[in-house]
Design a protein that fits this description.
By secondary structure, the chain is α+β, with helices and mostly antiparallel strands. Helices cover 28% and strands 26% of the residues. Strand 2 and strand 3 form a beta hairpin. It is globular and about 40 Å long.
């Protein structure tokens, strides 16, 4: 959010473009006040909110993914308010993966990290 460099933005744009091409959707970069990175559209209809992360290691190096609690809380509000999915998309050195916030998502395993 506040620590996003131009290089971060370029890496995230490359990842989201690959996702959009694969899924046949369009994306729009969201203003910083939305906290998450992108909105996805299918046939001009909002279909999801997306946070994109780029990690400079293989996907198997760490057992967890560190993400801001503040970002997840805001993503949860967008998800519930707009009634569209929230996706976390991560590009590692060896692959791209994604996670969809489930309807019954609970903050039950918050740890201090980073």
């Amino acid at each position: 959010m506040l620590y996003e460099s131009e290089n971060d933005k370029e890496n995230e744009a490359e990842i989201i473009q690959m996702i959009c091409n694969k899924w046949g959707v369009a994306c729009r970069k969201l203003p910083i006040r939305y906290i998450v990175d992108y909105a996805l559209f299918r046939d001009k209809q909002l279909s999801a909110f997306v946070e994109v992360k780029r990690r400079k290691n293989d996907s198997t190096k760490y057992p967890t993914l560190i993400i801001s609690l503040f970002k997840l809380i805001n993503a949860s509000m967008l998800f519930r308010g707009a009634e569209v999915p929230f996706l976390l998309v991560v590009g590692w050195n060896d692959r791209i993966g994604w996670w969809m916030m489930p309807n019954d998502f609970q903050f039950d395993a918050v740890e201090w990290g980073g």
